Amino acid sequence: MSGRAQRPRPPGRPRAHLLFGARLGPRFTGPGVDGPDEDGPIVVIESRAAFRRRSFHRAEAHLVLSAMCHRAAALGDRVRYVKADTYREGLARAAGRSRTTARHPTSHAAARFVAGLPDVDVLPAGLPRAPRGVRRLGGRTAEREPAALEQERRRGRSAP
Q1: Which residues contact 128 (CB under 8 A, 6 or more apart)?
Q2: 91 within 8 A of 45, measured Cβ to Cβ
Q3: Burial of 15 (0-12, 13-18, 19+ CB in 10 A)
């Protein structure tokens, strides 16, 4: 998270929720204790600057844009789909100065961006975690694979 505490949900009008292209699944849009406000608008921004910053293969760019459009269509009237030069411009057009939420982004640059916005509450990433007391070792779960655990011990790493 960005280091600042999540503010309690204000009574009344639901907050808009900023949805990044890397977080389009239902896990990131469903309301819940740590999720976006129920019935709050979902903001999807097609930022030209994001595509200029990083080199995308033409097919990858097409896939990302297609996924964003299809997810926006699936969410229906809740979505404000904005085409803008930057995320900041798109967010200003879609949500104005109203309170907004966003899941913790996947990139450091995007995390710094949302942390610097005064009207955005950063929600937890919304990704599944390993069960309590279980440590991941190279993508494998130590609890389930004793060989992986032994390999880590031989390398001199402590294991649970």
Answers
A1: none
A2: yes
A3: buried
CA 64/CA 22 separation, integer angstroms:
8
76 conformational bin, left if phi > 0, alpha if psi -120 to 50, beta if neither: left
Gyration radius from the chain CA atoms: 19
Q: Which residues pair with 79 in a beta bridge?
A: 42
Instruction: For the full predicted model, state whether its pTM sits above 0.70.
Output: no
> Do 17 and 37 touch, CB atoms closer than 8 A?
yes
What pLDDT, in 10s, does the model give residues 113-125?
888 988 888 887 7
Residue 146 phi, psi dihedral angles, 5° rounding:
-60, -30
Backbone angles phi, psi at 61, to 5 degrees: -60, -45
**CA distances from residue 98 to 49, 91, 104, 111 in whole angstroms, order as listed:** 23, 10, 19, 19
Pick the closest to residue 18 from 106, 93, 83, 95 (CA basis).
95
Longest dimension (CA), the chain: 57
Polymer length in residues for the chain? 160
Q: Is the pLDDT of residue 152 over 80?
A: no
